[in-house]
Amino acid sequence: MNKVPTIRDVAKKAGVSVSTASLALNGKPGVSSETRARVLKAALELDYHPHAAAKNLADGRTRTIGLINPITIEHLFSSSGFFMRLIQGMHQAAAEHDYSVFLLISESEEETVEKVNKALRRHSVDGLVVTNPSVAAPYLQELERRRVPHVFVGRPPREGVLYVDNDNVEIGRLGTKHLLELGHEKIVFLSGPPRFTHCQDRLLGYQAALREAGISFSERLVWYAEQSEEAVYQAVISGAPGKEFSAIFATSGLHAVGAIKALQDLGVSVPQEVSVVCVEDTELARYFIPPLTAIDLHSYWLGYWAVKLLIRQIVGENPGRPVLIPGELVVRASSNPVSTRKGVINATQNPGRETI
Description:
Blueprint lengths: L6 H8 L3 H8 L7 H14 L5 H4 L8 E7 L2 H4 L5 H15 L3 E7 L2 H13 L5 E5 L6 H8 L4 E4 L9 E4 L1 H14 L5 E5 L5 H16 L9 E3 L4 H11 L7 E4 L2 H13 L9 E5 L2 H4 L7 E4 L2 H16 L8 E3 L2 E3 L26
Parallel strand pairs: 1-2, 1-3, 3-4, 4-5, 5-11, 6-7, 6-8, 8-9, 9-10
Antiparallel strand pairs: 10-12
Helix pairs in contact: 1-2, 1-3, 2-3, 6-14, 7-8, 9-10, 11-12
């Protein structure tokens, strides 16, 4: 019979103390992002879960909230500050009510269903926050069937489900409008997979901004890529040659970084020939080269309000309506007025690069 992993096993595998492992697993401060990532990966590999029975209080609650991100580990632990800031906001709201946050890593929607079922069977959480909802969202039916309190970070695929989100249509419009005001008309919309509702909504905002400016929408300038730098790089390498464009609106900082690397390998300079705007934590965006013009999602407050609404559900209060957090455009060096050169990429160019 296999031994059930303990927090000591996680600490040993991650090369940290038990107290540090506990802080990292519960989303508490005092742990560097590198150490937290190492501890979380160790917990994932060991299939470690905290012993809920030891944490239950007299009211029968675990005082623990689960966070599920149905995305790849690479994206979760990427240079983007979105998820770290989200967890910080969740921790702050949870601490105000004497709750802890536990990260349940799942790299696919199928795995998310499995993680939901396992967490509920073990009674290890009182409720769940789920990020990155897709159009399918197969886990939604399971959450509702089991009547577990839950809140989405991102617009769910149907009405009547509680969520916290940005106004992603307005964010798509805001980034595109900024580029239009700089004189750009041929603007690439570089997006994550269309299965995610936030990608769909930002595309609607992009289209709205073009329509308001009297510019025709072109499907040829909409490029999709999975949420990895290599996938984005390849999407731009294959999509750019022969296309006329002078700007890219990327729906994440990871997409912006992959695009800039691809453009550089194609001999196109940013922002002299092609401007780039993205959606990203602006504290991180300023350290890119060039510093990125970015729309800040204020992910700290997304996490904070997700937990606030969830705890209201858990204690039987009326959680209220969905909460929308406005985005904020911060202009930096990556977006310039349109140049005389239109960013036409020669279709015969070969970057001579297979991987990043």
